[in-house]
Design brief:
Strand content: under 5%
Number of strands: 0
Shape: elongated
Distance between the termini: 25 Å
Largest sheet: none
Order of helices and strands: HHHHHHHHH
Helix content: over 70%
Number of domains: 1
C-alpha cells in the first residue's frame, strides 16, 4: 500500500506541476497578447495613455494575470525541485535557484506595468508635471518592461537548460523533451542578450525564438496528461538514496 501511495504521489505531483505550468503560460500569454499588445501603441505615448485610461480594468487584469503567472511558476519550481531530486539533488537545487531568481526579477518588473496607472490615473499627486510629461513617463515605464522581462528570461534560460538536462538524465519522462527544453533555454538567452546588445537584430530574431519555446508547452501537456512513470521515478529515487 505504501509503495502504491508513493507511485501515486509522484504522478500526482507531476500533474499538479503541469496545472501550475499551464496557468503560468496562459497568464503570461493573456497579459502580453491581449493587454499590452492591444493597449500599448509603440512610439505613441499619448495614444497609449488614452488606451490605458479607456480600458483601466483590462490593464489591471493584465497585471493580475502576470502576477498569477509568476506565483504559479514559483509553484512549478518547487514541485520540479522535488520531482527531479532523484536525478541530481545538486543540479535540482541550482535549477530551483535560477527559477526563483527569474520569478523574483519578473515580479519586480511588473511594477513597470502598474506604474502608468499611478501616473495617469492620479495625476493630481504629481501636479508639478504636465499631461505630456506624465504620458511620456508612463510610456517610458512600459518601454522598460521588455528590458526587465528579458533580464528575467536570462535566468529562465538557465532554468530551462538545467531542467532539460535533468529530464534527459531521468528515466521517468521522455528523454527527447530534455534536449528540446535545453535548446529553448539557450534560445531564450540568445534572444535576451541580443535585445541588450543589438535590439534591431533581436526584433528579427524574436519570432524564431518562439518556436523552440513550444517545448515548454509540450512538457506541460505531457505532465498534465501522463504525469511521470511512477515506477521508474521510485526506482531512481531508491538508487539515489543508496548513493
Amino acid at each position: 500500500m505504501m509503495e502504491r501511495n508513493a507511485e501515486m504521489s509522484s504522478r500526482s505531483k507531476a500533474r499538479i506541476a503541469g496545472v501550475f505550468y499551464l496557468i503560468s503560460i496562459a497568464g503570461c500569454f493573456f497579459a502580453e497578447a491581449f493587454v499590452r499588445g492591444r493597449l500599448v501603441v509603440y512610439g505613441e505615448a499619448a495614444a497609449t495613455a488614452r488606451n490605458i485610461l479607456a480600458h483601466q480594468q483590462l490593464f489591471r487584469l493584465g497585471f493580475a494575470s502576470d502576477l498569477i503567472a509568476v506565483m504559479s511558476y514559483i509553484a512549478v519550481v518547487g514541485l520540479f525541485y522535488n520531482l527531479f531530486r532523484p536525478v541530481s539533488r545538486n543540479l535540482s537545487f541550482v535549477a530551483a535557484f535560477f527559477g526563483l531568481a527569474g520569478c523574483i526579477t519578473q515580479g519586480i518588473n511588473l511594477l513597470n506595468h502598474f506604474l502608468p496607472l499611478i501616473l495617469l490615473g492620479d495625476g493630481r499627486a504629481l501636479s508639478g508635471l504636465t499631461t505630456d510629461q506624465l504620458q511620456a513617463l508612463a510610456y517610458a515605464s512600459l518601454r522598460l518592461f521588455p528590458t526587465g522581462y528579458n533580464m528575467a528570461m536570462v535566468f529562465f534560460g538557465c532554468y530551462c537548460l538545467s531542467i532539460g538536462y535533468l529530464v534527459f538524465r531521468s528515466t521517468f519522462l521522455p528523454r527527447i523533451l530534455g534536449p528540446l527544453l535545453a535548446f529553448a533555454g539557450l534560445c531564450y538567452q540568445i534572444n535576451s542578450f541580443a535585445y541588450f546588445l543589438a535590439p534591431a537584430f533581436a526584433a528579427r530574431l524574436f519570432p524564431y525564438i518562439l518556436m523552440p519555446g513550444a517545448s515548454e508547452t509540450l512538457l506541460c501537456l505531457w505532465l498534465l496528461v501522463f504525469g511521470v512513470n511512477a515506477q521508474r521515478w521510485k526506482e531512481q529515487a531508491c538508487a539515489a538514496e543508496e548513493r
